[in-house]
């Protein structure tokens, strides 16, 4: 169970879907309009990050440098393949 829809009963589990995912599922299931989307579980996200290099330390004193470092790390993450287990839906 790595990908859930907002309508899935399990999507309400905070430990499984994180705060944002659980909140979107809650309001969607309550009948409020929520843009189409899906939730990647915390387990799948953790597995994806295990393929990444160690998250670097970022300087918070220099905003321009922080933005550059974050952009570089984002570009690195975008080059990583998704683990096949992350593509399976429950």
Could you explain the architecture of this structure?
The chain is mainly alpha-helical and 90 residues long. It has one domain. Strands 1-2 form a two-stranded antiparallel ribbon. It is globular. The mean pLDDT is 87.
What are its keywords?
mainly alpha
- Quaternary class: single chain
- What Rg is obtained from the alpha carbons, in whole angstroms? 16 Å
Can you tell me the number of structural domains? 1
Please indicate the percent range of residues in DSSP E strands (runs of 2 or more). Answer: under 5%
What is the average of the pLDDT values?
A: 87
**Biggest sheet descriptor:** 2 strands, antiparallel
What structural class do you assign from the helix and strand content? mainly alpha
Shape by Cα distribution: globular
Describe how the helices and strands are arranged.
Blueprint: E1 3-4, H1 14-29, E2 39-40, H2 42-50, H3 63-78
Antiparallel strand pairs: 1-2
Describe this structure in a few short sentences.
With 90 residues, the protein is mainly alpha-helical. It is built from three helices and two strands; from the N terminus they run E-H-E-H-H.
């Amino acid at each position: 169970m790595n990908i859930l829809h907002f309508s899935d009963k399990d999507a309400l589990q905070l430990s499984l879907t994180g705060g944002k995912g659980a909140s979107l599922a809650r309001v969607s299931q309550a009948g409020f309009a929520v843009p189409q989307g899906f939730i990647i579980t915390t387990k799948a996200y953790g597995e994806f990050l295990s393929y990444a290099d160690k998250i670097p330390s970022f300087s918070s004193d220099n905003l321009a440098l922080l933005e550059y470092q974050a952009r570089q790390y984002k570009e690195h993450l975008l080059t990583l393949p998704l683990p096949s287990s992350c593509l399976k839906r429950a």
